[in-house]
Recover the amino acids of this structure.
């Protein structure tokens, strides 16, 4: 467990040992532009711990082989590792069965899988799909494509100026034509944590299934899909300390069984003739072709890593760090925060009067600080907040207060350069 015990007024509270956890992430040891790297772009991709790197290279050195179809030793080892990773995912998100956990390359592919598998089968002319005003393009564009194809309509849950969804307006949007609600757990552009359990319950009251884009949820929050009661939960591994190319679609078996496959090909069939193909059972029906075996095994190792740390202490630490950086940054004259929801995690987005976020990002890079500048694949959020783009610092449990200070000092420097 990477947490030490701190005795506070007779109470024993876990404290997060950030120096120790940083040792697990080799990439953080480097310098950029002669400064220690300050990595604050975790919402785009988080870094990978040594144990995950080692697991991936052990697969390549000792186990590399194609899964499922082989009768030989290596194929069986690769299959065991791959299916073992699926069981780790199941436990991590508390799914009922591992066949409800489909491996995909990430959230984009996952949402497209649900669009093709569920949407093209169950959505027709005049039906409606409800998304929120803060969605990432990955949870807008596939639904728009579906609406165009089917003559269906996209409805949008509005948000307030702080970046919080308006739940009464959400409920008012739901009706007998609504075929799906697709909403993000945590906003990549604003940091808002959405009340998924409440939203699911309101959708279910009207018999409407709900999909969660969990890209930014899984790295920060405990995920219990049975407690959330969502119908789909989609994850990108590279945002939760695993390699790129790994990801998950959780779907309730009763939906997945009724859905059409997404991709057709090898490994997803039961029988093929030129007249007709019958499909394999779950999860294979949704995993055509050779998957990203090494990456998904890496995702399993990342989950082992997360199970080995005190996640509650990690989350408390992240929240403290976000509050610290928020207070310091917002005290700078000319800085305006974009995204001030009461329930937030991970993300600190801001604009500076008269200075383009790309200039902020470029100057910070010269200081060795990695942030992201732009629309963060959420152009409707930029429009709603009336900004062309933002600068975004995003945190993980390996970031430090000294790094938050470096960010704040560098932003001050940017303002001096432009004044
Ligand atoms: N949804 C959200 C909220 C995201 O932050 C991202 C990645 N920026 C995605 C979806 C898409 O994830 P991926 O690029 O891994 O498919």
């Amino acid at each position: 467990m990477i947490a030490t015990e701190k005795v506070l007024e007779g109470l024993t509270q876990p404290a997060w040992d950030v120096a120790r956890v940083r040792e697990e992430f080799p990439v953080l040891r480097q310098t950029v532009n002669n400064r220690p790297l300050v990595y604050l772009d975790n919402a785009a991709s988080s870094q990978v711990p040594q144990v995950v790197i080692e697991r991936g290279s052990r697969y390549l050195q000792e186990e590399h082989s194609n899964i499922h179809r082989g009768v030989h030793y290596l194929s069986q080892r690769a299959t065991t590792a791959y299916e073992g990773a699926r069981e780790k995912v199941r436990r991590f998100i508390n799914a009922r069965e591992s066949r409800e956990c489909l491996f995909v390359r990430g959230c984009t592919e996952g949402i497209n899988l649900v669009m093709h598998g569920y949407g093209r089968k169950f959505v027709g002319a005049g039906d409606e799909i409800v998304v929120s005003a803060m969605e990432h393009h990955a949870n807008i564009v596939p639904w728009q494509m579906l609406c165009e194809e089917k003559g269906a309509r996209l409805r949008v849950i509005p948000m307030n100026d702080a970046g919080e969804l308006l739940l009464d307006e959400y409920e008012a949007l739901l009706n007998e034509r609504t075929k799906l609600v697709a909403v993000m757990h945590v906003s990549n552009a604003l940091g808002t944590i959405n009340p998924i359990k409440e939203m699911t319950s309101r959708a279910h009251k009207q018999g409407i299934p709900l999909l969660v884009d969990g890209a930014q949820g899984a790295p920060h929050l405990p995920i219990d899909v049975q407690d959330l009661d969502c119908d789909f939960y989609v994850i990108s591994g590279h945002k939760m300390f695993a390699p790129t190319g790994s990801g998950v679609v959780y779907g309730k078996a009763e939906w997945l069984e009724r859905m059409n496959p997404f991709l057709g090909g090898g490994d997803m069939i039961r029988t093929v003739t030129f007249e007709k193909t019958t499909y394999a059972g779950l999860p294979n029906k949704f995993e055509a072709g050779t998957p990203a075996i090494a990456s998904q095994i890496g995702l399993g190792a990342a989950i082992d890593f997360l199970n080995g740390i005190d996640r509650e202490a990690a989350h408390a630490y992240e929240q403290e760090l976000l509050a610290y950086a928020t207070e310091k940054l917002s005290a700078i004259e000319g800085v305006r925060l974009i995204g001030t929801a009461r329930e937030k995690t991970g993300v600190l987005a801001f604009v500076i009067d008269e200075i383009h976020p790309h200039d902020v990002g470029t100057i910070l890079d010269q200081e060795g600080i990695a942030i992201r500048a732009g629309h963060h694949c959420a152009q409707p959020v930029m429009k709603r907040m009336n900004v062309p783009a933002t600068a975004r610092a995003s945190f993980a449990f390996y970031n430090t207060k000294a790094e938050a200070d470096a960010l704040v000092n560098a932003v001050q420097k940017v303002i001096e350069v432009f004044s």
Residues 73-93 form the longest helix (21 residues).
